[in-house]
Structures are given as C-alpha cells and as structure tokens.
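Catalogue entry: protein
Contents: sequence, fold tokens
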Amino acid sequence: MEMDRLQPDIKYEYCDRPGEDLEGNEENDEKTLSQLWSSIKATVQKYMLQIQIKAESDMKSCQKNVLQEFNETINLLRVSYSRLSTEKDQLQNDCRTDRELKLSYLNRVEKLNKTINDIQESYSRLTTEKDQLQNDCSSDRELKLSYVNKVEELNKTINDNQVSYSRLTTEKDQLQNRFNSIEAELKKRNSEKGYSFINDKKTWTESRQFCRDRGGDLVVINSVEEQRYISSVFKEGVWIGLSDIDNEGVMKWVDNSALTKQFWVQGEPNDDRGKEDCVELNPKKPNEKNWNDIPCSEKRKWICEN
C-alpha cells in the first residue's frame, strides 16, 4: 500500500494531443523527452529517498521494537533466573534435607533391622524355652501324678508301718522282757558256770592249757542266748573250745559234746591252706554269724569255763 502512495506524479501533456505533427517538432520532442527524463529521474530519486527514509524509519522502529523485546526478554530471563536460582537453592536445600533424611532413615532402618533380628532371636529363644517349658510342664504333671500316687502309696505304707510299728513295739517289749529274763538267767548260770574272761593273748593250745591248769577248759556254747551273751562281752576275737585238731574236718568241743548249735560266718569253716583248725568268736560280725576257723598259732584273748 505504501508503494502505491509513492508512485511518481507523471504528466503526459504532449502525448494526449492528437493530430499534432510530431516530425516538425523533433527538437521540441527531444527537449520534452529530456525534461521528461529529468522529471522521471527526479521523481525516482525522490521515491528512492522516500524509500530510504521509510526503510530507515522502519529499521529504527524495528530496532526499537527488537530492543524493547530484547529488554523484555532480558527482564523475563532475569525474573526466570531469579526464580530458577531460588528454586535451585530450594532444591539444594531439599536435596540436602533429603540426603540427611535418607541417612537418618538408613540409620533408623539399620537399627530397626537389628532390633528385628534381636526380636527374632528372642522370639526363637522364647519359642524354644516355651516348648521346653511345655515339655517340662508335661513331665512335671506326669511326675506330680506319679508323686501323688507315690505319696498315696507311702501314706498307705506309713499307716501300715505304724500299725506294724505298734505291733513290733509290743513284740519288742515282750522280747525285751524275755531277753531281760534270759539275760538274768544267763548271768545266774554264768555265775554258776564261772566264766573267766581273759584279756591276755595266747595261742589256742596255750589258752586251753591256762584254763585246764585252773580246773576248767575253754568255753563251750550250746545255746543262742549264750552265744549272744558272750558276743556282747568282747570287742575283738576270742578263742572258744572248738577245733578239728584231732580229726581234720570234724569240729569237736573240748568236752567231747555234740556240736548242736553253729554260728559260722558265711563260707566258714574253710580250712584256708589246710592250716585253720581252731575256732575264734569275732564279735565284730553279727551275733549269730561270727565263728571263724583260723590257725591255732594265732594269738587271741580267751574264755575259760569252770
């Protein structure tokens, strides 16, 4: 549209006259053409100048607009930069916080894992202990039941024993009375027999000779009461009047009376190595099982009987 306004204002005065003789006017035509050319040239120069001015004006306007846009862009960039810097700082802080939080979480997770492992170990241990306790409780219940049954049996046994104890106490008292009577009788008989308890030690033959020199002989035992009485007097072995010196393997009393009562230690007489022919009474053994054959050459205390 601007180009239309800049069109040169050219007048065609001479071209619009019809019938005019052009040949007679060649000089005028040349002059006219020269003038026309000058006018066109001037018009073109004017137009070019207008174009240049317009271009410069448009250029300045464009530069101004570009500069303004550039400034606006710079301002926008500055605002964006500021905002981005703030966001960057915020992100850095957030990242730092996140790292710290992550580290804190990692530490917390490690602690929690350790706690979980400890709890699992404790759980396993407690489970084992619980199972053991259950087994123990089952065993304890069975043992308790066994103990209850045992206690019942023991109570019954105690009751039975109490009854037996009462009966035995009565029997003991009766036996004690009988024993006292027998002991008194034995003491009476012993005083009549005239036992002599010798604390010296001699061989069996020497001991017998000692008794015979005094009108007696080694003691002869014919009853359980007499055996118990003599066993209660001594604390160590003593010679009695029993041997198989005259006939090996045949025990005989010194008064040639029959051997009716015997109170041998288990496994005796055994005539060890063929040298045991005389008999001792060993009170350290049970009262009714304390006879033992030993070599006659051994030295013992002895009992004389008148």
Remarks:
- Strands lie at 195-202, 217-218, 238-243, 252-253, 278-281, 291-294, 300-305.
- The radius of gyration is 77 Å.
